[in-house]
Amino acid sequence: MSIARSVTNHNESSASGSTIAVVLNSIPANSHVVLSVGCLDAQTISGVADDLSVAATGPDKEIDDAGNTLRKAVWHYENYGGGNRTFTVTFSAAVTFRSIVAMAYTGVATSSSKDGIAGQEATGASLTSTNLSPAPSLDGELIVGIGIASSGVPTPVSPLAEVFSNTVDGSDTSDYIQPTHAAFAAQWTQSGASDYGALAVSFFPAASSATVTGAPLLSQAFHPPRQLKGVLSMLMRAMADGLNRTSVTPVTVTIRQRKTLSPTGNHVGGRQRRN
Amino acid sequence: MSTTINVNPQNFPTGQTTIGPANVPVGTTGYILDLDVSSIVSPQLLHYSGEYSTDGGATWLGMGSADFTGPWTDRQGVVHNDAAETFAFGKVASADGSGWVDIVSSVGWKVRAIVTADNGPIHSSGGTLTILP
To answer: What residue ranges do the domains of chain B occupy?
Structure first.
């Protein structure tokens, strides 16, 4: 199951206040809700909670622009119940330029979902979060980025795609589903150089396969039942190793040999994935 | 090609004023509400809320909201005479998994904007509601 964005909404205000809220309707069950929140740098982001008083996890990453004009952060809920919900950000005191962008995704890991983070405060016309650390390690990870500038309006650089460009504070919230895992830095451009801040957070997809480190490499077709014992052994080993993303529905299985393949095929260490 | 609907000059009284509903051509992605706010002063505030309907106006779904205080001053202290906000239907993952594609309108979709004024009346010399292609 690949990640997909289902519903989004936003609320932003130039007025002074100590909270700001947004309603997200028709959230699918077991969603991953990501919140891009911010305010003027004069105050801090105290927390995010829904109308059931369930607190969000975060901040996954928080950043100012280098000129200390704005503050932005990413918070999230994993394995969220769904329905129609209101999310409220609370700030340390009344503050202007409050904003919240809420995004619900399906297909994200339902536990321990956060992978890497990145962030940078600098000055220039090209904004970069620098590379996510750790780098994405699974195909299909969700990457959410926020670009803020003291005077400019950041435009995301492909493959990052804009979710919402805040009118009030000029910030940009974007995302990207990375098909093949690789190093990644979220990038934006703006019309002229100014102080900026850029951040990125990556989340694991809900995996449909177990991965066991090992290479290279002997691939062969799967011939049940001769190798079934080996495959089951491999999956048991993966689970024992604490790899909990093991919802396996293989159609075709590729076995990559780490040591030697016994004639019976039941001594297998390698990578198994759904093709 | 975008469709632009003119918003007449008016005094927004304290409370809600609905702009629309407007019928949406098939294949569009949202709209921009752009109003003159040159006369808004402190402590007045205009709150925009975007909504759309996929069932001819029976039910309405939120597209986002924004507040503009008087005078509408950006984070650099620049005062603006108009306040524009984009409201989109959203995006979904593309079929080939390579990125996102816009949600586009179907037959019978409508949009409307709810403008709420605090400490009104707030005079506006008008504006536009532009349907985005």
So the answer is: 3-132
pLDDT band at B123 (very low <50, low <70, confident <90, very high): very high
Q: How far apart are CA A25 and CA B63, in angstroms?
A: 10
Of the residues B42, B60, B76, B100, the best mutation for testing chain A's interface (the one with the most A CB atoms within 10 Å of its CB) is: B100
Rounded mean pLDDT, B61-88: 92
A201 within 8 A of A211, measured Cβ to Cβ: no
SS3 string of A66-132? Answer: CCCCEEEEEEEEEEECCEEEEEEEEEEEEECCEEEEEEEEECECCCCCEEEEEEEEEEEEEEEEEEC
Other CB atoms closer than 10 Å to residue A256's CB: what's the count? 18
Classify the complex by whether its ipTM is higher than 0.90, answering yes or no: no
- Helix (H) / strand (E) containing A176: strand A172-178
Nearest alpha-carbon partner for A255 in A241, A240, A273, A233: A273
Domain of A66 in residue numbering reads as 4-203
- What per-residue confidence (pLDDT) applies to B115? 98
Q: Cβ distance A72 to A199 under 8 Å? A: yes
Residues A53 and A188 in one domain: yes
Interface test with A, best of B32, B33, B49, B67 (most A CBs within 10 A): B67
Rg of chain B over Cα atoms, rounded to whole angstroms, equals 16
> What tens digit of pLDDT does each residue of A69-82 get?
999 999 999 999 98
**Which of B86, B90, B97 comes nearest A179 by C-beta?**
B97
> Where is the domain boundary, A203, A228, A251?
A203
pLDDT over 50 (residue A229): no
Predicted confidence at residue B1, as pLDDT, reads 63
Q: What is the CATH number of domain B3-132?
A: 2.60.120.20
Same domain, A17 and A132: yes
Work out the pLDDT band at A220, boundaries 50, 70, 90: very low
Residue with tokens 């524009």: B84
Distance of CA A261 to the CA centre of its chain: 37
Based on the fold, state whether residues A137 and A85 are members of the same structural domain: yes
A107 and A56, same domain (yes or no): yes
Which residues of chain A neighbour B64 with C-beta distances below 8 Å? Answer: 9-11, 22, 164
Q: Are the CB atoms for A73 and A42 separated by under 8 Å?
A: no
Residue A251 has pLDDT above 80, yes or no: no
